[in-house]
């Protein structure tokens, strides 16, 4: 492991912010901090609308969501959020190019049928895309597989292999390589450790791929 | 011929609740005719606020009417959206000013084929111009203008009501703050046109229809209209709902009778649906309104592009479909949602799981109610109505 790694802490305790961002789950806290006030945001896989509601309330964003589960959509719309029932594979193509400032795909990429197309579409419809996903290269997962010889289960991957929706798991390294391959620029990459603490890292760093339990990446379209 | 009591000529509408507005300026219809003067019968609930910002237009379906929350003046049955409307209800009459108007071509007070043609002194019958959903909406626009409302807080409706909602959003984007098309589509499908044609043929095959002149001749095509209603009613339900309600259960008997009496409960139910319908609905109205639905294709006005049709919209949309609705299936709503996404419209889309088929929009569906309540509250906040 010869690569120089910059494990740089962002702020002292960045996940506890004055605006009350600590209500959010680890990666969502970080994502919320990355989004400018008033931005047009599309949250894909928005769940029960936690991030959207937070962004709308605290940052005045113009937010839209897509969610697969009917209960999630109904909860969102019932709370006055603009959310459609759909999924990242089927329902993104209709959106206009550059329709949003930021497109968020949190903990959903690994459940899509065609992650490559999804990533390309994200940076088409958003000026920026923020993608978070569980890192299958995380040392505990590697160890689990090595020692126990079974499909790993963690807090982020809680389902046994036979009922997980995650059909396209990847490591941080895999993800960055795919971005390179399709010409999507990685503007920023952050790993979160087991305690949800974010570190800035060189996106291609190997140690990050080992130590990060999840990755949060800011992407933008093909280099102009 | 018919044993059903004959109601002479046009209805008088005397003593019926609600209002009637005489519109003097003729309306340029899609078929090219300048039609008018004409009457719009409408009902309102709640009160218009000082800013005129809390008005909701409720659009009724094919066989609905303006009595969304009143007992029906003929059948005495509760209003078709009684479950949604009232103080503290989803459509809260203490908060919103609700307007519901009978559509052009209808038979509950708005000018339709059973009313007298002033030029001949006889009922219009088939000399009534063929109207479209856009014509219905044009007529409603006159009413809204008359009421002094520049912008509707919401336009909402199911089925053909949903078509009107979409037409409103496309034709008058500046007047529609929010739009809720329920169990609807941006165009009528081939299958739906086919079902309507069956209904129309049933009416026209009834000897009492008399080429549409039954009112003048003192007759009533009750059997034809009843069959049309029976066929249509099946399309409003679902296989699962029919099975749950009736199964193969027999009607007041222990064994089949080896005849063509209504042995099965489902037959008896349909016959009842048919026979009660003819008491309250006009056969020619049924022809005209089904035709208007058949002609509905929002994209057609814009070279086949639904995006184009909706490109000017600034409304907040809440599109709702039902899982068991095979008349206006979810796929149709999704197409609409994609078109709205393509023009970066503000849209919510909810598919509600229910066995109740197309008719679910008329029934007590808790998730529908919750969705509507939340959506309207969210829009109310943006409209300055408070939450």
Task: Report the CATH topology name of chain A.
Answer: Rossmann fold
**What is the domain total for the residues of chain B?**
2
Strand content of chain B: 15-25%
Q: What distance lies between the first and last C-alpha atoms of chain A, to the nearest angstrom?
A: 33 Å
- Largest contact between protein chains? A-B, 21 and 30 residues
CATH class value of chain A: Alpha Beta
Strand order of the largest sheet of chain B: 1-4-8-5-11-12-13-14
Mean pLDDT of chain B: 94
Q: Please state the structural category of chain A.
A: alpha/beta
Oligomer: heterodimer
Query: What is the domain total for the residues of chain A?
Result: 1
* Unreliable runs of chain B: 1-9
Number of helices of chain A: 8
The radius of gyration over CA of chain B amounts to 21 Å
**Spatial arrangement of strands, main beta sheet of chain A:** 1-8-7-9-6-5-2-3-4
Structural class designation of chain B = alpha/beta
Number of distinct beta strands of chain A: 9
CATH homology superfamily of the largest domain in chain B: Alpha/Beta hydrolase fold, catalytic domain
- CATH architectural arrangement of chain A: 3-Layer(aba) Sandwich
